Amino acid sequence: MTAVRRVRDLARAALPRSVGERLPAAPPQEVTQLIHDKRFQRAVAAAADEQGRDEEEVWSEVKGYLHEMAAAHDDRTSQGWARLGDWFLRAYDVLVDEDDMQELRRLDRTHSLALAFSHRSYLDGMVIPNALSSRRFSPTYTFGGANLNLPVIGTVASRTGLIFIRRSTQEIPVYRLALRSYIRQMVTNKRNLAWSIEGGRTRTGKLRPPVHGILKYLTDAVEDHDAGDSLDHDAPDVRVVPLSVVYDQLHEVSLMTEEARGANKTPEDWRWLVRFARLQRNRLGRAYLTVGEPFSLRERMAELAAEGVTGHQAVERVALDISHRINRATPVTTTAIVSLALLGADRALTVDEVLDTVEPLAAYIDARQWPVAGAADLRDRATIRRALAELTRSGVLTAYDRGTEPVWKIGDDQHLVAAFYRNTVIHILVERAIGELALLTVSELEPGAELPAGGELQVGWEEAKRMRDLLKFEFFFPSRAGFEDDLRTELRLLVGEGVSEMTPQKARELLVGARPHLAHLVLRPFLDAYLVVADRLADRGDGPVDEADLLADSLAVGQQWALQRRVASEESVSLELFRTALALARHKGLLEGGEGVGSAREAFAAELRDSVRRVNIIGEIAGEPVQVVQPPAPQPQPSRRENA
User: Fold this and answer.
1) Which residues form the Phospholipid/glycerol acyltransferase domain (predicted)?
2) Do 245 and 128 meet the contact criterion of CB atoms below 8 Å apart?
């Protein structure tokens, strides 16, 4: 049976006998309640007055938005939708920790759940509802982008709890009023709600910065903003549940990496859906759904208020809490570790060489008690061989077996794909990598160098904090106090207990003897990408910057540097990484033109060149000589205008 027929038949099976309007003849409960709610009526009247519009006109608009986003749970439709989801997931075995699910189900009996999930694939929207419904959870209402509201399929999905919402609503205040009120009513009715904390799929494999829209409306719903309104007094709390979904491999990663190299995003339509369905014919291993530590949203907001953190800052803090808990719940996959080993080497390795690289990583993961997907033994030869074979079968790796023993390497144009898989676990390695750079900085101190209070160790702490600031748009770091606590843990793992004094010689000895070495494996791709952007920014002197032009220039020069081996890997040539570097430059005030900004841009590039140099030294210490031609510092040259 073709993918077209299968999608069509399963969709028809899920449809009610008479589709008619997109919604059932009687509107969902929340829509009816809102239309008759006195507070909502006052809000609509106030919106009309504020905008200088006729109230009936605003009512017509808001009712249209409510019907557009409203969802229901129809038993027959939901059963058919679950079958469609199982068919889309046929490339995977879905693994769920049943103990975690049992605990979550107990919570479901007494609380409304706000399920905030990571978003690596369109399949996430099938993994989570199917896992919950098959374990008899209360119906879950999931927020999805309006771009997925396709004909027929959208009609079916809205009857299974999928709430289609628009992404850009800044210029539609009435839409925001409708959505905020709808979410408040869902919380009042103790519905379970699910949404991606990232807003959209990650293009790099690691968590994107959180989007605050849905979370802001949820916090509004659980807080008492109107002491004269009984509805707010009676509003129930919700339990926020961080969820992580990670896959051994994903068919759609190759399309996302093409976008990272500048290709246009494929629009979601029926043809896209059929192509996506066809891709799932090929088995890709397992999908892992894991549950992070739940918390009370109301209690967390009260804690922050007691600390003097309110409003948007409080929402930001809660969003970061969720992201940290998702990361802590995300298991290490064998695919990620093998990708890490091969990306770090960027040459062909035997299975023994892969195992040699993985073994200290496995020991580190054990020491930090990070979860491993499927309880896999990362030191097991058969486990590593199977991962190599699966990555070769999907084209991420190439294998050569005509010599004395087989060897594997990253395939041509597959570095970004392998990096996507590696990045699913990169968050557990970043602080260790920064700790290595801190030790290296101490080891490079000149005899007789002037030291701050605290001596050599303080030099190391300052370097770690500098790297944290440099990478703060790339990774989720804890607060400064939490970061220092984590670094102390890493220092104990690196050098043992009781280290209170440090000398350059001792730092060098400890660094050389440490295992594993991670800075070159973890940080170099990001620092290389940042350096490309910083170099192109410095090339513009004091002049203003067109961001689109800077990104295009960085992409072109990055490809040149990859060919010249001025960057260690092709994975650094990525618009996603360049955009993050651009965000950092914007934060530093380097994008606005003006007198003196050229010198600041040069200093930014020099800082990154030195960071790359030191990361490469870690690679050499690790026994992986880095064959990289260091980009020279830019020389003064005529401006583009003069050249023109």
Assistant:
1) 113-248
2) yes
Q: Which amino acid is at 69?
A: M
Q: Where are the alpha helices (DSSP H) in 369-454?
A: 381-393, 415-423, 430-443
283/418 Cα distance (integer angstroms): 18
Spatial separation of the C-alpha atoms in residues 289 and 94, rounded to whole Å: 7
**pLDDT at 224 (0 to 100):** 57
**Buried b or exposed e, range 598-607, using 16+ CB within 10 angstroms:** bebbbebbee
Which residues, 6 or more positions from 210, have their beta carbon under 8 angstroms from its beta carbon? 197, 198, 199, 316, 319, 320, 322, 323
Give Cβ neighbours of residue 636 (< 8 Å, ≥ 6 apart): none
Residues near 325 by beta carbon (within 8 Å), at least 6 away in sequence: 242, 292, 293, 295
Question: Is 395 within 8 Å of 412 (Cβ atoms)?
Answer: no
Burial level of 199, CB count in 10 A (0-12/13-18/19+)?
middle
Q: What is the pLDDT of residue 149?
A: 79
Residue range 27-67, pLDDT digits in tens: 678 999 999 999 999 999 999 999 999 999 999 999 999 99
Q: State percent of the chain over pLDDT 70.
A: 90
- What is the reported pTM? 0.86
**Inter-CA distances, 190 with 90, 222, 240, 642, Å:** 33, 11, 13, 66
Residues 74-94, buried b or exposed e (16+ Cβ, 10 A)? beebbebbbebbeebbebbeb
- Give the integer Cα–Cα distance in Å for 53 and 178: 17
Which of 114-118, 137-141, 255-259 shows the lowest mean pLDDT across its residues? 255-259
Structure tokens of 64? Answer: 């249209």
Query: How far, rounded to the nearest angstrom, does the alpha carbon of residue 40 sit from its chain's CA centroid?
Result: 35
Overall average pLDDT of the 77-105 stretch: 92
Q: Is 22 in a helix, a strand, or coil?
A: coil
Asked if the model's pLDDT at residue 522 lies above 80, the reply is yes
- CA–CA distances in Å: residue 36 to residues 29, 55, 178, 548: 11, 15, 14, 48
β-strand 285-291 against 92-96: which pairing, if any? parallel
Q: Which residue is listed with tokens 């293009």?
A: 203
- The predicted-structure confidence for 635-644, as pLDDT tens digits, reads as follows 544 444 333 3
